[in-house]
Amino acid sequence: AKVGVLISGRGSNMAALLYAAKADDCPYEIVLVAANDPDAPGLKLAAAEGIATFGQSHKGLKRADFDQIINAQLRAAGAHYVALAGYMRLLSPEFVAGWEERMLNIHPSLLPKYKGLDTHQRAIDAGDSHTGCSVHIVTAALDDGPVLGQTPVAILPDDDADTLAARTLIAEHQLYSRTLAAFVSRERHPDWLLNKVRESAL
Ligand code: GRF
């Protein structure tokens, strides 16, 4: 399965997906890495690995117009799935509709808790025993689609947001490549996604 990855900066989750794709038995390949910042460090890393890249600032463009530029790049690259990996943009409903049930995102919290930003600080402030990460189907609402996989990460007494984010990133990298591989390999049974949605609703 051909996957396009959208990033905004460092791209360590993109790198994790990319390295996992080098395994002979990986059911997906990355055909494009695109960023809403031409200077995103992740673009240089992807290019060095021989992956097609595209970088353009979204500044000065209407949301739907920028998304259409990205969409055209994804289609031209032959992508059939999209993996958002540290892509710090809310997507237009038109873009989401064009990739319905074929676009995933990784979010650094145990959804549905802590949608949005500053997730680790919020978990620490709440006195939670764990934070974690979630891979979910992308819908028009922020961080809100059916959850396909999660990894809890214990919060240590002396953790701050930075130490917790760094440790959670290890879990993100493992979770994302495993969940994306499972998702693109799912038996073509239409109920697969329905069952996943039902499970995540339990
Ligand atoms: C990751 O923690 C991801 O969950 C969040 O932003 C961070 C992006 O890091 N959305 P990277 O660009 O994948 O290194």
Q: What is the strand arrangement across the widest sheet? A: 3-2-1-4-5-6-7
What is the average of the pLDDT values?
A: 94
* Secondary structural class: alpha/beta
> Mind describing the biggest β-sheet?
7 strands, mixed
Low-confidence blocks of residues: none
Number of helices: 7
Helix content: 25-40%
Ligand species: 5-O-phosphono-beta-D-ribofuranosylamine
Order of helices and strands: EHEHEHEHEHEEHH
Number of strands: 7
Shape: globular
Beta content comes to 15-25%
Distance between the termini: 30 Å
User: Nearest-angstrom radius of gyration?
Assistant: 16 Å
Organism: Sphingobium xenophagum
Pathway: Purine metabolism; IMP biosynthesis via de novo pathway; N(2)-formyl-N(1)-(5-phospho-D-ribosyl)glycinamide from N(1)-(5-phospho-D-ribosyl)glycinamide (10-formyl THF route): step 1/1
Active site: 107
Function: Catalyzes the transfer of a formyl group from 10-formyltetrahydrofolate to 5-phospho-ribosyl-glycinamide (GAR), producing 5-phospho-ribosyl-N-formylglycinamide (FGAR) and tetrahydrofolate.
Task: Write a brief caption for the model.
With 202 residues, the protein is an alpha/beta fold. It has helices spanning 12-20, 41-48, 63-76, 93-98, 119-125, 161-185, 191-201; strands at residues 2-7, 29-35, 53-55, 81-84, 103-107, 130-137, 147-154. It is built from seven helices and seven strands.
